[in-house]
Amino acid sequence: MFEFDVTQDQLSETGVAVGIAVGGIVLAWLAALLSRRIIHFFTHATETELDDVIANAVRGSLIAFLAVQGVYIALLTLSYLEDHQDTIRRSWVAIMLLLIVFAVRRLMLDVLDWFARRPGTEGLPGFDSRSLPFLKRILNVLVIAIGFLLVLDAIGISISPLLAGLGIGGLAVALALQPLLTNVFASSYVITDASVAVGDYIEVDGGPVGIVEDIGWRAARIRTFDNNIVLVPNSSLAESIITNYDSADTRADARVDCGIAYEEDLIHVEAVVLEELNDLMQTLDVVDHARTPLFRYAEFGDSNINFFVKMRAVTWSDSFLLKHEMMKRIHTRLSAEGIVINYPARRLIMEPDDVQGFDRLLAARGGGGG
Description:
This protein is an alpha+beta fold. Helix content is 58%, strand content 14%. It is built from ten helices and eight strands. It has helices spanning 8-43, 50-76, 85-117, 132-154, 159-176, 178-193, 234-239, 266-283, 318-336, 352-369; strands at 201-204, 209-215, 219-224, 229-233, 242-244, 252-260, 294-300, 305-313. A five-stranded antiparallel beta sheet has the order 4-3-2-1-5. A hairpin with a 4-residue loop joins strand 1 and strand 2. The longest helix has 36 residues, at 8-43.
């Protein structure tokens, strides 16, 4: 059996300390219940939402601060813990630093989201809200890393040797992880250059075509039309020739190439095709009404006089549906008008010796069959 030699004064001190700690926790609980009303009372009269964002960001850390502060004050009142006061103080500082780090992290992320939601923000040069997920990852890593070093220093662990070791070890790690680091730096280049962002519809030269779903540390996730995910290393993405269909304007042209027989009336063909496309423009929602259909004859082909038509869709993905409807309408109308689209044809010019050779071959087969 263990025996504890506890004096009456120590019991009294412990009771007072427990009361202080419980009081701090209760105060934090009341602050959690009333904080939303208090924040609303002080911020509802302002026109901007920034003060609401800041108050809500630091609200959790302030509530935790009240609870931790109550426990810390309670421990300081205990005389029999005087030998451990330095440890208690260091622990309190470390916890305070953690609360500050979490508050700063939440504040930066929430302010960044608020800034992205502001009207007119998208028009600012160099800013793209679709790059926010990547920026948030960077902020998370930086804030947590700095907070971790501060906490180590607060609890008495010298970070100078750690930083020196990280410098030497970092060089070895950098050499070992060179391909990974290349992709990491390439991802930051792609994001800051604003050439590709999440949500863009891109075509990689010699690679996939699809929508960029995410740009991670190592690779970009591209979802193709077949609903497959293709991972493209960021270094390849940064070095490749990329067609970004959403970089400046989401609208895109749908083009159909066709041809009609040399005997057809070219003026009539142009009139009926444009009439059909103008009707399609009024009935299909994905058509951009600011751009009228375009008809141009292109060349005298081997079998047809070739022409092309173009219409503009609202988005690049809509251009596929628009092209689909254009081809159906053009084929149906040309067939109804009796306008001929020739199949590819070739003229074969044969020498007399070639013809005689065919005759001998046919005669031989006929004789063998008899």
